[in-house]
C-alpha cells in the first residue's frame, strides 16, 4: 500500500506501465530476479521496497534516500513511465512529512513529464493531477489545488467507471479542499457522493476501510457545517440540517469498520479516532475526547513522527480537550473554544504555509463563532453565479448539451487573475461567466444560448453588474457564449497554441496575451476540449522557452547592468529611469519563465505585474522569491538616484548613496539569476554580466530556426 493521509488517495499513487527490465530497490527487499543485466528499472520492485520501508516504520530516515535513488535509476534507465511512478510516490511522501516547499518541484516535474509522455485524458493523467492537487492543497495553495482537482475530475469521469472507487477518492479529496476554504456544505456534498459510490460498488461495506475513511471525513465536514449555525446546505445537498446524532453515527461506523477489518494499527484509524474525539468534544464529553485524541496521537507518532502537521494539530486538539476536562470534568461552557478552532488557528498561522488535514484531525475551515464574511472575489462570485443560475439554466433548457458545454471565467480582467478588490467594481465587474462550445454545437444552439445567458439576472447575491466599458463590449466582450477556438483566437490570434515546429509563431506572442489565455478558472469541462486548448498555451516548447530566457537576459544586461550606470553618470535621470523600468520588466518576466509557465503561468501586463510577482513569491517551492522585494526596493531608491541631484537638500548627500544602492541591487539580482541558471543546468559559466550567459543558454536550443537565436 502507499502511504498518505487517505487510503483512497493512496491507491491513486500507483498506476501500471510496461517498463524496462528491472534493477532492485533496496538490498533488504531485493529478489534474485531483480538483478537485470541491462540495468533497467523495475517499478514493482521499487514499490515493494517502499512498502517495506513503511511497514518497518523507517520512513523518517530511509524513505527519502530510497525515493531519490529510484529517481536516478529510472532516469538512467530511460524509463520515463517508471520515473513518473516514483515522482507520484515522492509527492505523497513529502506531503505526509509536511515538506511542502520541497514538493513544489516534484509536482512540477511530474506534470511536465506526464504531458511529455502524452498521457492527457488517461488514468495516469488523472492520477498525477490528483496527487499534484492534494500536494498543493496541503501546501495551502488552494487555487492551484482546486483547478487541478477539477481537471482531474473532468478526466476521471471519462476514464473511470461510475462505481470506480478512485472517483470516490477524488470527491473525498475535493471535499477536503472545500473544507479548508470555508465551504462546508460543498464539502459535505462531495463526501456524500463519494460514500454513495463506495457503498454501491463495495463487495463488503462492513470491512471496507475506504468507506470508513469517507465516514470519518464526513464527520468532520458535518461538524464544520453544524458550527456554522446548522444552516441549510447548498442546493446540491438534500440534507438541510446537521444533527449530532447523525454525525456520531458516522463516527461509530468508521471505528467499527476499522475494527472489523483488523486495521486499528493503521495511520488511517487515527483519522477515525480524531473524528470521534471531535464529536465527543462537541457533545460535551471531553473525557472521551481526551482518550480518543491520545490514541490517535500515538498512532500518528508511530506512523508519521512528531514533526508533521498531522501530529501538531492533533496534539493541539488534545490540549484543548484536556483543558476542558480539567475545567469541568465533562461540563463545557457553550461558548468555549473547540478543538475545531485550534485547527483554524493552526491552518492560518502555519509557518511554512501548510494546512491541516481533514482526515487526521478536525476540519479547520470554520470556527463555531460566526465571523464577518470577507469580500468575495470575482472568481468566487462567478462560480457561485454559474452554480446557482447558469448550470440550472443549461440543465433545464439544453439537457442534450449540458454534458458538452464548458464553463468558467478566463481572459482579460483583474478578477480572472484573482487581483480584483473593491476598486475593481467600478467597471466591467459583476457576476458573470463564459460558456465554451465546439463549433458544431455553437452552430446549433450558440445564438439562442447567448440570448438565454443575457437574460440571466444582472444582480446576483447583492452584487449588481457595473458599467461596461467599450473595451469589454461587442466583439471584445468578456463573458457569454463562445466557440472554443474563437475564444482563444480573440485573445491570442490562434485557436490553440502553435506547434513546437512553428517557433516563429510562438515568438510573436507576448506574455500578457498568454497570461490572459491561461488565467482564471474552469468550472466545468465535460469534453475536456476547452482545458486542452487552454493548457496548450502553457506548454511552451522547450526551445522557445530557452529563447525567451535568452532575450530576457539580454535586456537585463543591456538596460540594467550596462545603461543604468552610464545614464546616471551622464546625469540623465529620465533615461536612467526608463532603463530601470526595462530592467524591472525583464527581470520579473524571467522569474516567471524560470519557475516554468506550465506551473505558474505567465507574467501579466504591467498593471498587474507586481501583484502576480508578489503572489508567486509567497508560494512554497518557487525560485528567485527574494527578487520581488529587491525590485520594489530598487524602484523606491530610483527616484532619489535619478532625480536627487548632486546636492539635493541643504547639506544633503545628494544622489550618490542612492546611485550606489541602485547599482548594488541590480548586481545582486543578476548574481541570483546566474545561480538559478546554474541550478537548472542552463549554464556552467560564472560570468556576472548576463549578456555573456546567453550563448550558454542558447547552446541547449536544438531547433536551428533563426528566430530562436541571438545575433
UniProtKB/TrEMBL annotation:
It comes from the Bacteria. Residues 506-608 form the DUF4037 domain. Residues 25-36 have a biased composition (Acidic residues). Residues 344-358 have a biased composition (Low complexity). InterPro entries: DUF4037, TPR-like_helical_dom_sf, TPR_rpt. Residues 12-36, 344-373 are annotated as: Disordered. This is Tetratricopeptide repeats containing protein. It comes from Bifidobacterium anseris.
